[in-house]
UniProtKB/TrEMBL annotation:
This is peptidylprolyl isomerase. It comes from the Bacteria. Keywords: Isomerase, Rotamase, Signal. It comes from Limnoglobus roseus. GO terms for molecular function: peptidyl-prolyl cis-trans isomerase activity. It catalyses: [protein]-peptidylproline (omega=180) = [protein]-peptidylproline (omega=0). InterPro entries: FG-GAP, Integrin_alpha_N, PPIase_dom_sf, PPIase_FKBP_dom. Residues 362-447 form the PPIase FKBP-type domain. Signal peptide: none annotated. Its EC number is 5.2.1.8. It is an enzyme of class 5 (isomerase). Belongs to the FKBP-type PPIase family. SUPFAM superfamilies: FKBP-like (SSF54534), Integrin alpha N-terminal domain (SSF69318).
Length: 447
């Protein structure tokens, strides 16, 4: 555990709405950007020539020129790469990875407001360190400002969407397990990451994954959640009222005997039109639009491809979730009566007992932590800017290995580590020789 230096992060705030633009992806992966005012084509690109199939799209004003830019990620079969295209002329602004570069589960992306400096933020879902991980990142370069694992132990990619579902002024994060996962959809509060809704949209034995989207289907002013079956599933679409969490619609958008999935989104099919459910057949790429109340087929969309999450306007920024919530900012009470001494000499004290996967000697752990000397001096922490980090347990000092084994994900543990199980007689960074160390650790995930 050596000191690292990280820039500070200010609170998020909403920026002015950029010039209206939306983007679509067709079945072959061609992305087309349209003016939301006139529905005329602005530009067209093929971002991932080596990936067959539609890509994920959203928009945000990344270069702060007043015009929305187009952000894309590949679907299944592609590496977790984000590409950002200038909304004015379609030129490539930047490209970066948001997960394990060798993983080909694809990625998803949604706009997430801005930070206090006006930098556009994104929410992404991709495999990171072997597990499906949600990241909040700077759109300009992929810098991670927060991340979390929504489904412990799930090794596939994730589908993400954002909207202010509970009308508290911050956009909430909707997450679904992609291919290989059960059809679980969970809504996390953008303010504090509390779970607002958690269900299996379809039969729990289905492992073809799901795609999530958001949009106001019942005209109550709040975006609702739309879930569509992924690869190997029928073209089934189910939506939920974000106020009551009751099912709004549950239907097959195309031939129910097909098993190539469907992608559904929300948007208007004519200039100035009201919202409709828009679906793309996973087998043929055919498009259909449905009345959001009766799910009867209405006029087919007048554009090629499926709207990305940009077709839905988010009403607030995503706050940096309190992933380290419950942790202390001051030296733990070293005289408390509930410290336990392990056989190795490490002392532990559980602030919160987790309910997830338990740590073993072979585990990789994702944690928030702070380290103190016994005089209260902080020598290391990953809590600024609240970005959890991952370690293989065998690569840590012996005191951490002894103190974390058996701890369960979701828990918060404090540890007093004797110098002999820390850095011993060697001075390390700002840690003097022969120093006992005090840590508080919040265990985010175990893999």
């Amino acid at each position: 555990m050596k000191p690292r230096f990280r820039p500070s992060l200010t609170a998020l705030e909403q920026r002015d709405t950029p010039a209206a633009l939306f983007a679509t992806s067709d079945q072959s992966g061609v992305v087309t950007a349209y003016s939301s005012d006139t529905w005329s084509q602005v530009f067209q690109v093929t971002p991932f020539s080596d990936v067959t199939g539609p890509v994920q799209v959203t928009t945000a004003d990344v270069n702060a020129d007043g015009t929305a830019d187009v952000i894309v990620t590949p679907g299944r079969g592609g590496a977790p790469t984000v590409k950002v295209y200038n909304g004015t002329d379609g030129s490539l602004l930047t490209s970066y990875t948001v997960g394990d570069p060798s993983d080909t589960s694809g990625a998803s992306v949604a706009s997430a407001g801005t930070d206090a400096s006006g930098n556009a933020l994104l929410v992404t879902g991709a495999v990171d360190s072997g597990v499906g991980t949600v990241r909040i990142i700077k759109a300009s370069d992929g810098t991670v400002v927060d991340k979390f694992v929504p489904f412990a132990g799930f090794t596939g990619s994730l589908s993400v969407a954002t909207a202010d579902l509970d009308k508290d002024g911050t956009s909430d994060i909707v997450v679904g397990a992609a291919y290989g996962g059960a059809p679980r959809v969970t809504v996390f509060s953008g303010a504090n990451r509390d779970t607002l809704f958690d269900t299996f949209a379809f039969e729990s034995t289905f492992t073809g994954g799901i795609t999530v989207s958001v949009g106001d289907l019942n005209g109550d002013g709040a975006a609702d959640v739309v879930v569509s079956a992924g690869n190997l599933g029928g073209p089934r679409v189910q939506s939920y009222d974000s106020t009551t969490w009751q099912v709004l619609q549950n239907f097959f958008a195309f031939d129910s005997t097909e098993r190539n999935g469907v992608q559904a989104s929300v948007g208007a099919t004519t200039v100035g039109g009201t919202n409709s459910l828009i679906a793309m057949d996973g087998n043929t790429g055919a498009m259909a639009a449905f009345d959001p109340t009766t799910v009867t087929t209405i006029t087919a969309p007048t554009f090629t491809g499926l709207p990305g999450s940009v077709a839905v306007t988010t009403t607030g920024p995503v706050a940096i979730a309190a992933g380290d919530a419950g942790m202390t900012d001051t030296l733990p009470d070293l005289t408390a009566a509930d410290w336990q001494t392990l056989d190795s000499g490490v002392q532990i004290r559980d602030v919160t007992t987790g309910t997830g996967t338990a740590v073993t000697a072979a585990s990789t752990v994702e944690v928030y932590y702070t380290g103190w000397l016994k005089d209260g001096t902080v020598f290391d922490s990953d809590r600024s800017p609240k970005a959890a980090v991952s370690f293989q347990l065998t690569g840590l000092i012996q005191g951490w290995q002894d103190g974390l084994i058996g701890m369960k994900a979701g828990g918060i543990r404090q540890m007093i580590i004797p110098s002999s199980l820390g850095y011993g007689s060697s001075a390390t960074g700002s840690i003097p020789a022969n120093s006992d160390l005090v840590f508080e650790v919040k265990l985010v995930s175990v893999s």
